[in-house]
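Thread: Modeling a multi-component assembly for a lab meeting

Hi all, long-time lurker, first post. My supervisor asked me to bring a structural picture of a complex we are working on to next week's group meeting, and I have zero experience with this. I have the sequence lines for every component (271 residues in total). Could someone generate the structure of the whole assembly? Inputs are pasted exactly as I received them:
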Amino acid sequence: MTEQTKIAVMGISGRMGQMLLRAVDEAPKASLIGATEHPGHAWIGQDLGEAMGMAPRGIIVQDAPLEALQHAHALLDFTTPEATMANAEIAAQVRAAHVIGTTGLSEENLAFLEAASRHAPIIRSGNFSLGVNLLTVLTRKIAAALDEDFDIEVVEMHHRHKVDAPSGTALMLGEAAAGGRGRDLSEIRDLAREGITGERQAGHIGFAALRGGDVVGEHEVIFAGAGERISLKHIASDRMLFARGALKAALWGHGQKPGQYSMLDVLGMQA
Ligand code: NAP
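Re: Modeling a multi-component assembly
Sure thing. I ran the full set together rather than chain by chain. Output:
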């Protein structure tokens, strides 16, 4: 019999936390062994099942990542940048595969993760769906094929509760487009426009973020030329898509060498 992958879910009461729990419970090769929440959260110290109004599960919700992670092979982390940094420190200590869906990470956060990935595998993606990862591959190819006469714009829409913009996925798509053109996104991105901006600069990649309602996530990459326009669009209608992808990443990551990986590595789609 193959070894079960022991998983901890961080931020278990969150929108994604609850989906991740469902994904782990559905998977025959994974079992939940730990869970965390924000210090001060009503579920801390309670049995997870009872906190959710269900039968006891024998897992106490912790506020300290070490308590939840000490026996874990992998952790699923869709929380906040601050929580993800604290989780990365402990994951590196216990050598657990850290699957990170948290978005809005700063350059400083990314440098911290780079250091942590010397001790344990980190699989980080702005989007864990198969469709979006395929979209990044297509975006890179089309950007490489078209010259700067085609302006690239990335448009995204998410639910009203999202706290960061542009979305992690929009940035992933922007990076794919910039990579296709052999450029660094940080040098050519227009993250927002307001007032008298002047004409659009050739070769730049623009972003627009819409927020409202309960939209799970929609992303469109537009290549706008003279007299024609190409548009690639992905619509996510169920958060379970991300949860199942993240779990796949955890099963893949268990036993990988330390280092930084993306969902493209998990899917075997790395260019
Ligand atoms: P959410 O509902 O606010 O969930 C975040 C959870 O983390 C909350 O339950 C929060 O608790 C908890 N948390 C905060 N600090 C913590 C700490 N120190 N220790 C443990 N738990 C802590 O948000 P969401 O919609 O699930 O999204 C979470 C993140 O995932 C966001 O960055 C979002 O952009 C990202 N996301 C990524 C993907 C992807 O495929 N990569 C897909 C969807 C979402 P409190 O409520 O008590 O603060």
